[in-house]
Amino acid sequence: MPKLTFHGHATVSIHTADSKLVIDPFFSDNPHFVGSVDDIEADYILVTHGHYDHVADLIGLAERTGATCIATFEIASFLESQGLNTSPQHIGGGAHYPFGYVKLTAALHGGMVNLPGAEGFTTLPAGILINFNSGERFYHAGDTALLTDMQLLKGKVDVAVLPIGDRFTMGPDDAVTAVEFIEPKVVIPCHYDTWPPIEQDAAAFAAKVGDRAKVQVMAPGDILDF
Asked: Which residue in 6, 40, 173, 205 is a FRET match for 165, CA 20 to 30 A apart?
């Protein structure tokens, strides 16, 4: 059974029986992160896109742990040029790993890569769909607007991590529509309350979702077994 830890903003780690995953590593400058980045373990680092609030600790974590970085071809190519282990993919494509099958999905957002040495570099953002070997199905939407493509995920997701912050991603109302499109069992809201421009009421979002799904509002450091 995968064990998910929410680290604030859009950063999560997932531990399975044989692998440790980190998605969008943003720890050091994350005002809500609890703990030390030096204690974060990773066999695989999965990246939705290259904005600073999703990759700030990517290179340092990958160097320390030797983790394999799963990202779009362009980001993976840059990381490989920095001497890191990579596994490039692209939107619509998937690959098998010891923990399961990872597919990158469409996301609608900016693509600038905020990594040292990658100034001016851009690529397409992505969502991440994981089918774990143990049977659980997980979706991290990344930073995105509401997409009709999300309807293709209907009935294929147990746990969905969806942004609700508005302004830079979809807001609560569009996230409710995303829940209607996807029909996950559990929804974890993310990308809100990190800074004043994206303050939101997660309880109000949960009320709007109603009985469409279980909304798991997680504080940084909270753990969910799914």
From this structure: 40
State the DSSP code for 212.
Answer: G
What's the total number of domains in the chain?
1
pLDDT, tens only, 95-137: 999 999 999 999 999 999 999 999 888 999 999 999 999 999 9
Rounded Cα–Cα distance for residues 67 and 70 (Å): 9
Bridge partners, residue 44, by sequence: 21, 68
Residue 161 domain flag: yes
What type of residue is 172?
A: P
Residue 225 lies in a domain: no
Structural domain for 105, as ranges? 3-218
Structural domain contains residue 8: yes
Look at residue 224 and tell me if it is in a domain: no
Three-state SS for 129? Answer: strand
Quick one: which of 162, 154, 190 has its CA closest to 6? 190
Rounded-to-integer distance, Cα 176 and Cα 187, Å: 10
